[in-house]
Design brief:
With 680 residues, the chain is α+β, with helices and mostly antiparallel strands. It has 4 domains: 156 residues, 3-Layer(aba) Sandwich (Glutaredoxin); 321 residues, Alpha/alpha barrel (Glycosyltransferase), CATH 1.50.10; 65 residues, no CATH class; 78 residues. 49% of the residues lie in helices and 10% in strands. The strands form 7 sheets. Strands 2-1-3-4 form a 4-stranded mixed sheet, with helices on both faces. A 4-stranded mixed sheet has the order 18-17-19-20, sandwiched between helices. Strands 7-8-11 form a 3-stranded antiparallel sheet. A hairpin with a 2-residue loop joins β19 and β20. The mean pLDDT is 95.
Length: 680
């Protein structure tokens, strides 16, 4: 009766051997609940979620608990990463009912899918004022049987509130302009943790999109306070335990305010966004200051490609927080990553072991559990060769330990973020292998995730699942393709991006509110409410993500299409202005796109004579180093792509054309002149 064995989600497959009679989310599950006249127990989580594993081990693997679930409920398991639409609807309900959200999420619904009771993790035995899971199951089943009118009334009220919540944003006041962006940046800076870097207290999450938005704000204003916040946050994260000091890449968040102890899961979406921000920071600072952000960018890119790369060219979703030290045994969080002084000595010998303990902050008392330490790196030792040797030895030793599981699901949106970061970072830092990896990933997504102009959400083992793409999937795939078009000047990437954007415009726009977007398509499965969330969270909002794709495309495509894309981008930003005005810390992507729009975006077209690939290389390098974030840059022969239409070399010399919106400077032929033009 467990129907998860054939699921495309690794998370669902983790539950395929549970004695629970799990269904996937499908109309037949709701029909089963109607036929049996029982409520639906909806459990939502994801593969690398620590507490999801805990609840599964405590409750879903327990035959007595499973029997109670099977008797009184139709049990539905959902991977929030594969079905973000379902997750969004019921997370809104959970937050409304309890004041907080999280995973695993546990919701009880009537057969129409309307929630009447929601929560998160429930323990095996009652503790801390929290009922046991079996107590909860018994109480809900009793309420369903004996107090149905109360259930019906509650579910109707919640459903109505959810529908009202998805009504969309009005156009914001004030309009997008320097005053609004300066206000947003100032509000964010006021919330900096000046001692530890970043914003807020524990737990502390990497402000991925916000770093990119602040960088673009600093490029516009030159305000040293903004630059200081960015560099302090970037350095604090890179030197703390949230960053993997041996293998590169960032964990999901730190449980403390000082970035020392991570929650050890590593997500593709965090690392793709952070790669973009660190590469951007590296290219805009002098060589000495750029050493840390450039190193972190390179190590993070290596982590993406080596640890998350799949055989088909896509990138896997995540590494688990837990390590199973014995097959079938319980997961131990962080077991792969932490060290004691004795372990360092055993691997490196007494001299190098003691030195490594000092460099990486490993002490006898430890900074984690049971006297172990998460590696940190607050200084850079002068002996770089020794450091490289020690790190290589420790990486090799760590590779011999049991490893965390990997969620091999390839999610379109997160791969689009990675394509964007690898293409932009590869061009900025001179890493052509990153660009080729981005192109390989894009070719896989176009072949397997795009069918008849429609985007699928995810694939596993090279085959796409049935879950339809949501707005962020269309937006980030288009943005990644546009980034590839810029760094390769190949028209195919622009052509594919245009088709995906045109499909998004047809299927996700709110016909009654120009510039407002639903997160699900007009022909997607109807849920209790059609979700749309304008807030930038761990991943940017679908609407703010689409705004970037539309704005970038408007500067790269032919004039007939450009006007429509530009109008849609501006309409979207007028609604995003409200988020910037009222919740700027939750508007990092909105800020990044608005900063680019305010500057034009800046367009740099480098027209080269003939087909000589080296022609104009100095101009192209200067543009990539000096252009602000969000600028569009293309190089090639005159007329080869739309941005180079009617723009050619000056005599026999390559020439760079700089435009801001519809205002263009005179062409320049020297890199110094181009840098001056971009600084203006």
């Amino acid at each position: 009766m467990n129907r998860l064995r054939g699921a495309t989600s690794p998370y669902l497959r983790q539950h395929a051997d549970n004695p629970v009679h799990w269904w996937e989310w499908e109309p037949a599950a709701l029909a089963e609940a109607r036929a049996r006249d029982v409520p639906i127990l909806l459990s939502v989580g994801y593969a690398s979620c620590h507490w999801c594993h805990v609840m599964a081990h405590e409750s879903f693997e327990d035959p007595q608990t499973a029997a109670l679930m099977n008797e009184h409920f139709v049990c539905v398991k959902v991977d929030r990463e594969e079905r973000p639409d379902i997750d969004a609807v019921y997370m809104n309900a959970t937050v409304a009912m309890t004041g907080q959200g999280g995973w695993p999420m546990t919701c009880f619904l009537n057969p129409a899918g309307e929630p009447f009771y929601c929560g998160t993790y429930y323990p095996k035995t009652a503790r801390g004022g929290m009922p046991s899971f079996t107590q909860l199951l018994t109480a809900v089943a009793d309420t369903w049987r004996n107090r149905r009118e109360e259930v019906d009334r509650a579910s109707a009220q919640v459903a109505e509130a959810l529908r009202a919540q998805s009504s969309g944003l009005p156009e914001g006041e004030p309009a997008i302009g320097p005053d609004l962006l300066d206000h947003a940046v100032a509000a964010v800076l006021a919330e900096e943790d000046a001692e530890h870097g970043g914003f807020g207290g524990a737990p502390k999450f990497p402000p991925s999109a916000l770093l990119e938005g602040l960088l673009r704000g600093w490029e516009r204003t030159g305000d040293p306070a903004v630059y200081g916040v960015v560099t302090r946050t970037a350095e604090a994260m890179a030197r703390g335990g949230i960053y993997d000091q041996l293998g590169g890449g960032f964990a999901r968040y730190a449980v403390d305010a000082a970035w020392v102890v991570p929650h050890f899961e590593k997500m593709l979406y965090d690392n793709a966004q952070l790669l973009r921000a660190y590469a951007h920071l590296a290219r805009r600072t002098d060589s000495a200051e750029a050493s840390l952000p450039a190193r972190v960018a390179r190590e993070t890119a290596r982590f993406l490609l080596d640890d998350l790369g799949t055989e088909h060219g896509g990138l896997a979703s995540a590494l688990d927080a837990d390590t199973h030290l014995e097959p079938g045994g319980p997961g131990v969080e962080g077991a792969t990553y932490v060290w004691t002084p004795a372990e360092l000595v055993a691997e490196l010998g007494p001299i190098d072991g003691a030195w490594a303990a000092e460099v990486f902050g490993v002490s006898t008392g430890g900074n984690f559990e049971q006297g172990t330490s998460v590696l940190t790196r607050y200084t850079d030792p002068e002996d770089t060769e020794r450091l490289a040797r020690v790190r290589a030895s420790l990486r090799a030793a760590r590779a011999r330990r049991p490893q965390p599981a990997r969620d091999d699901k390839v999610v379109t949106a997160w791969n689009g973020m990675a394509i964007t970061a690898l293409a932009e970072g590869g061009a900025a830092l001179g890493e052509p292998a990153w660009i080729e990896a981005a192109a390989t990933c894009a070719r896989f997504l176009l072949a397997e995730h795009v069918h008849d102009g429609r985007v699928r959400r995810a694939s596993l083992g090279g085959s796409a699942g049935a879950a339809p793409g949501v707005l962020e999937d269309y937006a980030w795939l288009a943005t990644g393709l546009l980034a590839l078009h810029q760094v390769t000047a190949e028209p195919q990437w622009l052509d594919h991006a245009q088709r995906i954007l045109d499909s998004a415009l047809r299927h996700f726009a709110d016909p009654d509110s120009p510039g407002s977007w639903f997160d699900t398509a007009d022909d997607a499965e109807a849920l209790v409410a059609r979700p749309r969330d304008p807030i930038d969270g761990a991943t940017p909002a679908g609407a703010s993500s689409l705004a970037e794709a539309l704005l970038t495309a408007s500067a790269l495509t032919d004039p007939a299409r450009a006007a429509g894309y530009r109008e849609a981008a501006e309409q979207t930003l007028r609604r995003g202005a409200l988020v910037l005005a009222r919740a700027p810390r939750s508007a990092g992507q909105w800020l990044a796109v608005a900063e680019a729009a305010l500057r034009g975006p800046v367009q740099v077209a480098v027209a080269t004579p003939g087909d000589d690939p080296a022609a104009g290389a100095d101009l192209l390098a200067a543009a990539r180093a000096a252009a602000p974030g969000g600028a569009v840059i293309v190089a090639g022969p005159a007329g080869s792509v739309p941005l180079l239409a009617d723009r050619g070399p000056v005599g026999s010399d390559a020439a760079a054309y700089v435009c801001r919106g519809s205002v263009c400077d005179l062409p320049v032929t020297a890199a110094d002149e181009l840098r001056k033009s971009l600084a203006g």
